[in-house]
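Appendix C reproduces, verbatim, an entry submitted by the partner laboratory led by Prof. M.T., so that reviewers can inspect both the input and the predicted structure.
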Amino acid sequence: MAQKKFDLAQKLRSFNRPSIFQFVVMGLGLVLAAALWIFLTGFVSCWQVTSLPGMPLPTCSTSKPIAGAVATNPGDTPAPAQTTTPDVSAPQIPLPPAWDGASRVTVLIVGLRGGADTQDCPLCTDTMILLTIDPVSKTAGMLSIPRDMWVDIPGFGYGKINSAYTLGENYKLPGGGPGLTIQTVENFVGIPIQYYAQIDFDAFANMIDDIGGICLNVPVQVDAGVQYEHGTTIIKPGYQCLSGKVALGYARTRDIAQGVKGGDVERSQNQQRVILAIRDKVLSNLPTLVTKAVPLYGQISSGVHTNLTLDDILRLGMLAKDIPAGSIQQGVIDYTMMQDGQTVVNSQKVDILRPYPDMIRALVDKIFGGGALAPAASGDPTQLMQQEAASVLVINGSGVTGVAQKTADYLKGQGMNVTGAGNMADYPDKYNFPPLPNRTELIVHAGKPYTMKYLMALMKFTDANQLVFDFNPSAPANIVLVVGVDWANSNSMP
């Protein structure tokens, strides 16, 4: 068993050649596109996208002997070779809590190297992109992480960041490959990650074709390899429109000889160009995409593995259409933030990238708005709401006399900071709520998740359309509660 671990570690740490089956996952465009397509066609009767953490992917082989990584020191001196099984019970990855619809949400998009079982590392994640969305400020960000970054993998010591997925799958850790990869990336960048998505490259290419291809500005000529075809396709500089397979080849290419002089860093920049091109195409062709919902959904179902729930994807989809391109921060960990290096593993020198933590932290702070977020508070929902002290304005949208004041008095009795109550005529169009809504609505002007969650539970919200995010620091209240007919006629109404 020790020899098998030694062999796998050597393969994981010494492999540097780009694989012909290497592919890239186009995270933001694909996830948000999927969300928009599903949202436009309503709830479906069968949801096949989600795979719970820890379940092996359909293409994974579990018949091979299992092996683990050999820990080495962060310097050039290898640590003593492991002769016992690593502590693989350390990384505990629980299912993430349900997204409250107001807090920042971050998704880790992973692209596996892929290929036949005879290849060195088919489950290595050669593409990792962090996507973050803030529903309150309506901003988003993308951060690409190089595959050869030398980091501490929990339970296994230092290794290339792209080997965490393989170790999590092979050792069947809680959360599997996605779980260990999430924890590794969280430790590295200092940002909590709620979700992951692993998307097959065939599904990605087919879906680009289904939306009619994408168009983008190409800075330099790239001789892109195309999956399942010999030779390369020349993509010239300038504004170019690409099919799915050519777009995949463009985003996958990393060789200097093919025009990508910056290697993995420039490839990451190309990937983000493709992501934004997908977003632009989806948002500009929503009516046409509605008619293609069935084949599009089929592609999503067969090619996406994620722990995002359908409800989360629906809400992200609704939010995506309101985030302008100028509000999407882009970042790639480049050579100003890391250094080429080598380390010795099993008597062999391995090429790695050594991070400059302070430089990377500055980039993370720029994209994620100030670094790591505080963990969610725990405790009684009423107490959390009271401690948050969000200002709430109650508006009667039900047509039933006295409902706003009665509701406001009840909420004050629960310790809520209700600043006023009245009818829609008292608070005209500046809030943009519809007249006489059947369902109660929340208009959220500031990030107050505990008050929002308290009201959603009290009013028995069941539809994401009952939430409206309108970031407005100058609004007279953090949250506007528009009481609908459902609450006015409810047995729960005080």
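Confidence is low (pLDDT under 50) at residues 1-28, 34-93, 371-377. Additional entries are available on request from the coordinating office.
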